[in-house]
Specification:
Strand content: 5-15%
Number of helices: 18
Structural class: alpha/beta
Distance between the termini: 62 Å
Radius of gyration: 24 Å
């Protein structure tokens, strides 16, 4: 026992081993109870907790005051998923930066470092001292519904280079890093929010691809690593249980084989991949038994209290030893001691560090650098002359990509951006089920247009979008495909000859694509993934 836990009661140590979320933009009675009476030392924010920069600063300050008054030895670890791109909880309360796949398309380690440094500075200024990022997954499965554009790409060394740059940026900003999702969530076709993905690979295959970025991150000094809810039958004894509660994965693979000595966190235990197997209270105990240090229970107070009670009961029954609790608490407290101090919490003036001119300029430049023109066979881009007279932008109905992603821009926001670039443009939402009147309206708009720009979101997994593109290609009109999520949509309509990719459905990325369509900017990005059978990684239209 070191000085970190010396004299600390068992219940206080257990409280350091949970990270919890809550509903509200001010401290709720539930979160106050968990901090004051159950000694919970770690908080996670979602978009539901965030209204503005000033409000977030007030919220983090109040939570820290509650913890300090309750006798916590170090400030709370306050975390969020600010991966940038499609997973960023702060909305307009912080500067928007490109996500990982867009950074992979830019392929500048310096730019990745600058963006993560800026992101980290803004988080730290608001009192958020831990980012559940960067994503270390290698996205080598085009059908992956949950990682996709959250990855830097499909090539492990490429992912590793950007991962290392990202870690350095966050750490220089004074923000705790959290690599995810170990041992790799990139080659799955199931979203673990909904069910348990199975990864059939051998250890040899994992060493060749999935583990490469994690090894690079560990060598760089990653602070913490998140375990994924995935099942690896070649490495795990128990059948159809997630790696988050597997001693073979957490202790055997990550601790012993990869030599990681930092904090290990679970992914959220309320996700179906775990909640529907062993259940949340039991899963909390099993995660700690397996060697995890922080169990994440993101949403519901009753589950959070049940998890704490289950851990205490497990110690009393001898299923968990006090030594295991102390070892995990030591790691968490040592991490806090490295980054946090009661004398160094951000003051109100720190909010001025949000959306500085330098950060806004970096944002605009980086989105411009990431946009990728994959095909331009008919030289339709830029859209000029007669083709620019009355462009029609079509937005087919889409389903949500993943439960991890934040909301898409509204059609009104997109329409405003379009008309700023193309004042005579028409914008039309296209439902997947169309009655005669809707179909007639669509055909009328097409007939009156000079160019068709069809915006797709996961068309490779959402057939109605692909059907619309195929029907547009039968028209005697120029057609430009604009994929605003991942680049794989082209697999569904390979005959499309003009194809532009943004890697994320965010307003800044969309505006950067409009700059390219207008001819204000030249697309500079290169594909960070291959489009199987069509284009290799690194390709762009010349």
């Amino acid at each position: 026992m070191s000085d970190y836990t010396r004299g600390m009661e068992l219940e206080r140590q257990i409280g350091q081993l949970l990270s919890v979320g809550f509903y509200g933009t001010t401290p709720t009675p539930e979160i106050i109870d968990l901090i004051q009476n159950h000694h919970v030392g770690n908080i996670i924010f979602f978009a539901r907790n965030i209204e503005s920069a000033h409000q977030v600063h007030q919220l983090t300050s109040e939570l820290q005051r509650i913890a300090r008054d309750a006798g916590h030895p170090y400030p709370l670890l306050i975390s969020t998923d600010q991966e940038n791109g499609m997973v960023r909880r702060f909305g307009k309360s912080a500067t928007s930066f490109p996500g990982n796949m867009a950074l992979g398309a830019i392929d500048s380690e310096q730019e990745t470092y600058e963006i993560t440094l800026a992101t980290g500075k803004e988080l730290k200024a608001l009192g958020v001292n831990m980012n559940l990022a960067p994503v270390a997954d290698v996205n080598n499965n085009p059908a992956n519904p949950v990682i996709g554009v959250r990855s830097f790409g499909e090539h492990a060394p490429h992912v590793s280079r950007h991962l290392v740059a990202a870690i350095k940026g966050y750490q220089e900003a004074g923000v705790v890093t959290n690599l995810k999702h170990f041992p790799g969530h990139g080659d799955t076709a199931v979203d673990s929010h909904q069910a348990l993905p199975v990864i059939p690979h051998t250890l040899e295959r994992l060493e060749e691809i999935e583990l490469v970025p994690f090894r690079a991150g560990i060598a760089t000094g990653a602070d913490s690593i998140m375990i994924a809810h995935v099942y690896l039958p070649a490495l795990m004894k128990e059948e159809m249980l997630p790696a988050t509660i597997s001693r073979e994965i957490i202790t055997g693979l990550l601790r012993e084989r990869l030599g990681f000595n930092g904090v290990i966190t679970t992914d959220c235990l309320e996700m179906n991949a775990l909640a529907d197997t062993v259940g949340i209270p039991r899963g909390t105990v099993m995660a700690l038994q397996a060697g995890a240090d922080i169990a994440l229970i993101s949403h519901h107070y009753e589950y959070q209290k049940a998890g704490l009670a289950a851990v205490l009961e497990a110690v009393q029954k001898g299923e968990l030893t006090e030594a295991q609790i102390t070892t995990a608490a030591e790691r968490v407290l040592q991490l806090k001691a490295s980054y946090l101090s009661w004398d160094d919490l951000p003051g109100e003036e720190s909010v001025r560090q949000i959306a500085t001119p330098e950060h806004l300029d970096l944002s605009k430049r980086s989105f411009a650098h990431s946009t990728t023109l994959v095909r331009n066979a008919q030289q339709l881009v830029p859209v000029t002359g007669e083709q620019a007279q009355h462009p029609l932008f079509l937005f087919p109905e889409t389903d949500h990509a993943t439960f991890a992603a934040d909301r898409y821009p509204s059609l009104e926001e997109l329409q405003t951006a379009i008309t700023e670039h193309f004042p005579t443009a028409e914008v039309l939402a296209v439902p997947s089920q169309r009655d005669e009147a809707t179909e007639a309206r669509l055909q009328e708009a097409i007939a009156g247009s000079s160019t068709l720009v069809v915006v797709t979101v996961n068309a490779n997994r959402y057939q109605p979008q692909a059907d619309l593109v195929h029907s547009l290609l039968q028209q005697e009109k120029p057609v430009i495909g604009l994929a605003v999520y991942d680049p794989y949509d082209l697999l569904t309509f390979p005959e499309l000859e003009t194809y532009l990719v943004t890697y994320e459905y965010t307003l800044p990325a969309f505006e950067a694509a409009l700059d390219v369509l207008q001819g204000k900017q030249t697309a500079q990005g290169k594909l960070p993934v291959s489009i199987p059978g069509l284009h290799e990684r690194g390709h762009r239209a010349e």
